[in-house]
């Protein structure tokens, strides 16, 4: 059994991790730590887990732990690892953005299995990708791998409110979010760094612009990215190339039917759809931001690290937000 600990256990991503790991056939949860809820039953915070677990939020115990998922907020993982020296045998999967940019230079592997599967298998430390980044990268990986990115890339992507985390803010409370849509961080979103690095890993000569307009939606979970760029492929060739690229990646499905977010919410799937308009290739990519964009992908990475089938524990549909 893989013995798992969770740091920062009270947030949305930790809740999704628990919903997966409690039913994972190869996992035993050794501890779940939350400073703000220390000593309380986990089901007091993640209320849908009532009856599924008797675990409390407790102190971290690394003596009997194989892997630690860090679900703290951005900027907190570096501080945590500076203040806490974990035993060398423990693998780390970090869900913050602290180690994603230039991950290799920091001793981490960027944990996008559809890009770095073989490196992940041998990695001790994983920087789990961002949700927007995952959705967009999966849409353009086959183009970059074939050296087909020749002009600017344009992306408009909308995400659910859980992407902003659990702590309430002026732009996440219900009365503002309900019946509302807003653009934010246009052309400057923090995930652009990791997306650009991913493109350059496959196509080092790419020197054009990646234009990204993020949108906050008035729904709880899911991301839909609309991506377009010039491409020499005709539509059937594009479908063939995408199918070939994702042949050994079980969570990505190429479809000729226009997808919607409800098809992937509560799954670890990504659906990709293609259209050709003159020279423009349009790619629609949909994922669940909390699963394939966060906790599901983190478990997928854990499976690869420990040499068990990639889909283990991820065939269920956890019920969350």
From TrEMBL:
GO cellular component, one term: cytoplasm
Domain Semialdehyde dehydrogenase NAD-binding, chain residue ranges per copy: 3-123
Subcellular location: Cytoplasm
Highest taxon of the lineage: Bacteria
Gene3D superfamilies: Dihydrodipicolinate Reductase, domain 2, NAD(P)-binding Rossmann-like Domain
Secretion signal span: none
EC nos: 1.2.1.38
Catalysed reactions, as listed in the record: N-acetyl-L-glutamate 5-semialdehyde + phosphate + NADP(+) = N-acetyl-L-glutamyl 5-phosphate + NADPH + H(+)
InterPro entries: AGPR (IPR050085), AGPR_AS (IPR023013), AGPR_dimerisation_dom (IPR058924), AGPR_type-1 (IPR000706), NAD(P)-bd_dom_sf (IPR036291), Semialdehyde_DH_NAD-bd (IPR000534)
Annotated GO biological process: L-arginine biosynthetic process
Pfam families per the UniProt record, alphabetical: Semialdhyde_dh, Semialdhyde_dhC_1
Pathway of action: Amino-acid biosynthesis; L-arginine biosynthesis; N(2)-acetyl-L-ornithine from L-glutamate: step 3/4
GO molecular function, one term: NAD binding
Active site: 131
Entry keywords, A to Z: Amino-acid biosynthesis, Arginine biosynthesis, Cytoplasm, NADP, Oxidoreductase
Keyword hit for NADP: yes
Family: Belongs to the NAGSA dehydrogenase family. Type 1 subfamily.
Function: Catalyzes the NADPH-dependent reduction of N-acetyl-5-glutamyl phosphate to yield N-acetyl-L-glutamate 5-semialdehyde.
Protein name as catalogued: N-acetyl-gamma-glutamyl-phosphate reductase
Organism of this sequence: Ancylomarina longa
